[in-house]
Automatic annotation (TrEMBL):
Organism this protein belongs to: Humisphaera borealis
EC annotation from Swiss-Prot or TrEMBL: 3.4.-.-
Keyword DNA damage: yes
Family: Belongs to the SOS response-associated peptidase family.
GO biological process, one term: protein-DNA covalent cross-linking repair
Matches recorded under InterPro entries: SRAP (IPR003738), SRAP-like (IPR036590)
Entry keywords, A to Z: Covalent protein-DNA linkage, DNA damage, DNA-binding, Hydrolase, Lyase, Protease
Entries under SUPFAM superfamilies matching the protein: BB1717-like
Root EC class: hydrolase
Official protein name in the record: Abasic site processing protein
GO MF assignments: lyase activity; peptidase activity; single-stranded DNA binding
């Protein structure tokens, strides 16, 4: 799964996405983004803008937003089949901006080590995401999103049995196609990112608390200094 990630290299957004003409105001680096918090994304409805989504997909038919906390991830293997995800896969896709993510590796002694995973280049990247628009009874609207996950690559296989789908820049244009398309047209993009282009290292257990949000969370640490 993907339940925590970072977006700190905000200066790279306009450089890596040259078509973007608008950014939300007062952006700040974030080192511990968690479910139900706002996330930055580019939707296929407005491919030249970066916007905020609620992390946790809230379908239009939902009675309230609480369902979103259970829908932070969608599995690539079934995303074109499940009714909740098939519609947004054909109509509402998005790029969720990130520069790293966390996962907890299970150790032989049954403890868990928090790991930080990023591109070796250090560059900003994009998760494959889906989005929806939910309307409350008072007429207010909430755009929400989910991160698509897939099987692990060779690097991630030693850490977890799932990883987020990181799209290569060559896939951005197709993923952000504004017109409704067959859901099956996009499943071929939902593959593990090349392991050789990624790196992972242990970080402080402080990342386990969403109250912590500082640059020290992504500093590498030795195993015996994790706690």
């Amino acid at each position: 799964m993907c339940g925590r990630y970072t977006l700190s290299k905000l200066e790279q957004i306009l450089r890596q996405f040259p078509g973007i003409t608008a950014l939300p105001p007062e952006l700040a680096p974030r080192f511990n983004i968690a479910p139900t918090q706002p996330i930055l994304a580019i939707t296929n409805e407005h491919p030249n803008e970066v916007t905020h989504l609620y992390w946790g997909l809230v379908p239009s038919w939902a009675k309230d937003v609480s369902i979103g906390s259970k829908m932070i991830n969608a599995r690539a293997e079934t995303v074109a089949e499940k009714a909740t995800y098939r519609r947004p896969l054909s109509r509402r896709r998005c790029l969720i901006l990130a520069d790293g993510f966390y996962e907890w590796r299970k150790n032989p002694d049954k403890t868990k080590t928090p790991m930080y995973i990023r591109l070796k280049s250090g560059n900003l990247f994009a998760f494959a995401g889906l989005w929806e628009m939910w309307s409350s009874s008072d007429g207010s609207e909430l755009p929400s999103g989910t991160v698509i996950t897939t099987r692990p690559n060779a690097l991630m296989a030693d850490i977890h049995d799932r990883m987020p789908v990181i799209l290569p820049p060559s896939a951005y244009k197709k993923w952000l196609t504004p017109e409704e398309r067959s859901a099956e047209e996009f499943t071929g993009l939902l593959e593990p990112y090349p392991a050789d282009d990624m790196e992972a290292y242990p970080v402080s257990s402080r990342v386990g608390s969403v109250k912590n949000n500082d640059r020290r969370l992504i500093d590498p640490v030795e195993r015996d200094t994790l706690f």
